[in-house]
Amino acid sequence: MMPGLRFAVLGPVRAWRGEDELPLGSPQQRAVLVTLLLCEGGAATADQLIDAVWGAEPPPSARATVRTYVSRLRQVLGSGGEPLLGSAAGLYRLRVEPGALDIASFADLVAQAGAARQQGDAATAAERLHAAAGLWHGEPLNGVPGPYADAQRAHLERVRHLAAVERLTLDIEIGRHTAAMAELTALVEEQPFDEGLRRLLMVALYQAGRPAAAVAQYHEIRTLLADELGLDPGGALQELYQQVLVADPALTPPALTPSAPAATPPVTTASTTASTTVAAPRVAPAQMPADITDFTGRAALLMELTDALGSGRDAGSARAIGLTGLPGVGTSALAIHVAHRLRDRFPDGQLYVDLRGDHGTPVDPVAVLGRFLRAFAVEPAAIPDDLHERTALWRSITDGRHVLVVLDHAHGAAQVRHLLPAGSRCATVVTADRRLPGLAGVVWRTVPVFDADESLELLRCVAGAQRIAAEPDAARRLATSCSHVPLAVRVAAERLSARPTWSVAEIEDRLRVEIRQPVALHADCDLVEAPLERRYNDLDPQTALAFCLASLADGADVTAAEVAGLAVLPLPEAERLMEELVDVHLVESVAYRRYRYHSLIRWFARRKAVLQLGHTITEAGLDTLQPAEHEAVAAGTVAGLVRGHVV
């Protein structure tokens, strides 16, 4: 017995006999097939087919062309017995078996959901609607031309939308608000004026423990309606807004219904011993550290990062931004702040990990992947030991979800590569001391120091606006003494706040003296220098030597030739060492073979020079040494001074 035919229109128009897909011919020929599949009774006249394909202006050969299309379809669909596509009494008729057309199956499942809903069985109704949603594969009648297909496509999209709204409503009713949130967020972005969708999203956000985000959704649509249409939100939306504001118990989420449909299919992973099926229920980990409440500045960069990470869900691979900059510039604070701003766009989870480790030892990606997978409720026994298998499972879990990952203090590309999530709906922020080459798709941004206005704004936020306004010139000098490095500005502002009887000028004068001392005099200096110390300790001995020696040169800038002379090195080697320092943001490249320190970093480097070379030599800047002594110092420093020996 020959296998039966199956047809699909909820996506590209396709047909199968058994497991074999059939060639349906040109787009116009598919338009004829679509008309016969969807018209009432499965029958149409030649004139109806002509109208369906070409509308009011058919070509002169339209009737003959339709006959050709029908003949070809009859051959493709024919079973060798009674023809499935026949003609009689001026009608073309296509015989389709029950259950052989996906739109009919969709309608049956929606009807079953409606019946279950009437009987009070919300879980079963949701299950049927999830099954119905699974029949869709993109735009209906994709690629099929003609006015009939256009009209049917619009109708099918409306039907799909209504079923989706009912399904999401049921998901929220049975406690699946987290799973519903991701789809609702995308739908609201597509249809920002739809109050029904906005209402569902507000409920889902509230039930997920995000009342502020629910309120923000209300304010967003209220502004849209007022600006674009001159209207206020409808009564139902206004009532919900009031319920959120007073934490109405009626909005309390129900207990999760066990029989509700799984939102994620099982993920199968291969190991060396067996295949394990991992049930990955929808959970939404929220691991971001606390945001900085007085985060200041970075307006343009924040806009750039939120736009890059929060848009383009379906445009290719997952989005990834890398942040780097000089020590203390605030890459970690910026990454975490951006993550908090974007959390509502990634309702399936926000993950954070400090890859530097507790003692400066880079964290093994195997351990990080285990942590990530457990956060998504993968049973420990189902997590493979092998790095590559864990990576594959991680990508399977994140594919199709809206997940944001922050990888802080990354050490190298090999560490990061395995931790990047899959799918265009995910996003990643990486912070590192330097750009990490070899990470395809990661776009790097160098975070600059503050400008003068941003530094003053941070001083006002921490120390008080009135105090800064009373001494504006001293405040500007204080910010300049901090090289406009955000960490240094914050520490200075906190000391100012802790000394209410001191003037800004007194704090600035004291700080300017302290940062120039051969050793740090105050615990605040240790706070500022901690990230500098970590980055310095990561340098190899020769690069650390160049960092110290170059700081002794006179003038604002230092050239590679001057460093070569100080360190008794060939010019190319001196240039290589200085370029390494540029890569890790300890010096700036201001021109070809010309470099500059931020003053805060220069004084740190000179303190290191004191420790490594001795106070007398560094005070003289090596200029008073005889050539033989100079060479001995350089040679001795390379061999041992950076390890702590003092000349």
TrEMBL record:
It comes from the Bacteria. Gene3D superfamilies: P-loop containing nucleotide triphosphate hydrolases, Tetratricopeptide repeat domain, Winged helix-like DNA-binding domain superfamily/Winged helix DNA-binding domain. PROSITE patterns: OMPR_PHOB. The keyword Membrane does not apply. GO terms for molecular function: DNA binding. GO terms for biological process: phosphorelay signal transduction system; regulation of DNA-templated transcription. Residues 1-96 bind DNA. Residues 1-96 form the OmpR/PhoB-type domain. SUPFAM superfamilies: C-terminal effector domain of the bipartite response regulators, P-loop containing nucleoside triphosphate hydrolases, TPR-like. Keywords: DNA-binding, Transcription, Transcription regulation. SMART domains: BTAD, Trans_reg_C. Belongs to the AfsR/DnrI/RedD regulatory family. This is OmpR/PhoB-type domain-containing protein. It comes from Planotetraspora phitsanulokensis.
